[in-house]
Amino acid sequence: MCGIAGTYRWPDGKAVTDRLTDILAHRGPDGAGRYSHSLGDGEVHLGHRRLAILDLSENGAQPMVEDGLALTYNGELYNAPELRAELTAAGARFRGTSDTEVLLEAWRRWGTDCLPRLRGMFAFGILDERTGELVLARDQLGIKPLFLVRRGEGLVFASELKALAAATGGSLEVDHAALVASLLYYWVPDSRCAFREAEKLPPGSWLRIRPDGRVERGRYWHLKDVAAEGRARARAGERPDLAAIVEESTRRHLLSDVPVATFLSGGLDSSWLTALAARHQPGISAYTIGFRAEDARFEAMPDDLRYARQVAERFGVDLREIEIAPDVLDLLPQMTYHLDEPIGDPAAINTYLICSAAREAGVKVMLSGMGADELFAGYRKHLANLLALRYQRVPRPLRRGVSAAVDRLPVATSRRGYRSVRFAKRFLSFAELPEETAFRRSYTMYDRSELLGLINPDLAGTVDDVLTEHADTYEDNDLDDFVNRMCLGDARMFLPGLNLAYTDRSSMAASTEVRVPYVDVEVVRAAFTVPGDRKIVGRQGKAVLKEAATSILPKEIVYRPKGLFSAPLRAWMSRDLAPLVREVVNDGELVRSGFLRRDALRRLVAEDAAGQRDNSKHLWHVLTLEHWYRGATSGENA
Q1: 0.90 exceeded by pTM
Q2: Does domain 2-221 have CATH number 1.20.120.530?
Q3: Is 300 in contact with 416 (CB distance < 8 Å)?
Q4: For labelling, which of 5, 40, 48, 200 has a CA lying 20 to 30 Å from the CA of 442?
Q5: CA 507, CA 213: separation in Å to the nearest integer?
Q6: Element (H, E) at 109
């Protein structure tokens, strides 16, 4: 895992690449490298920051240059041993044991045809000195980031957006459409970027730029096609052995020359991974978090620690417990800087603090259970959308009565919160809507009218564009299965746009690599071979995964109530962050610039304070957006 950067026919390219590479130092504190090549009337410069995981010797240093190819690469290839054996049999010779060498030789032999053969997480740039062509590529599912800016015949790229903002001298303008999307989702979709000129290379794609400035793009992996193939395999009667597939993926993700640990929340996904990892690496360490007792009580949060302890004891895991009582006033601007774009999920703080603790203990690699919920319908929204179809059959007068009664209930008092009331209010906000609209509303922050009431009226067209983009993405499939349509939508939008994005940025801020065994091409193929009625059975989400996990986990872990990898936002908002909320509402840059409406923000605060609505997540995201916007418009995010 590393930080990569480079320039292609870019003014003052060497100095810019040096600055890019320096800004990415936290992604790779173990080493730095530079490479330059003349194109005749221009230059190419590649930079690299190394976090040494495989082959800790200089044989794994980058940029790696061999026989006319120069590579700067960020990621891990979990099938590197098999590829190495195949390439060796074909005559390739290797100096070391890094997967970087394997990737370089695979490119030499197969070019872009090597990309679908790679199993792992990656983003890289590779230059062919003979042709002067630079190719950028990103992994199938968007686990690793790659940002770029094109101007004229030139191009600059980096692992993080803040590096590009600095490299362009603060000339990148904020894209207000991306901010509108961020308000809707509380993150910026992978199809958009917070700065106008910048873009994210899409997952499963590559870009080639030539010395004459021509650019060619290609897709080598389409999640839509994988889902369609899975549907066909299911109809043919195929039933994947999920227990074997997840164990094989976990075993591969343990490939490392440095210590590996796991996240262990005590929930199904992290518990299963930890148990499997302990089977292959006895005594492995795991990290779990808890919150101040008063915060957890106010938030009505479940006690996940006892489940984590139970798993650790059963499988001989060295459990490290971290109590999170963060100084959120300090962490908020710090995390906003590291996250690159306005992302309003406080789970990023949890990831950062866990990774920081692991790094202090000498751990560089962590396994996370991320991705299982998206692929196997484990979120409450998946079940809720199915229940909504039944709710719509309830007579309308009865539904009106239920809605009125729930609307009068408080979500919290001065001493405690009521999760069941929060869930009921959330459910009724989308339960009577059409499928795509209901699914979007079940996990986004506002409906169309609420969003229009929050922002500058001149952005009404932008709101419609953002909503249309969601509809187009959700409906772009060949599936006849509601549950798998939701899973595909999550895998294309929610997973890369939010969860993988904050995991990469917050873990790398602590110079730690997080691996995601569920977000593996073979696990994904298996996931879409499972019909929706085996993913959600009755009121049990992730049913097929739970059944597979009972091969190793006790049922009290497998079938326990779903936990939350989140934070006690209501407690933070009512205590630690209350003065900051008042400042942002009354005199924030977003309000003064006219982007947000002060009266609408005041209503959100009043509703939350009265306990009638839980707007803590909305207000937290307004704070993250405000801090990001201040940095972006002042140049501090660079």
Answers
A1: yes
A2: no
A3: yes
A4: 200
A5: 35
A6: helix 99-110
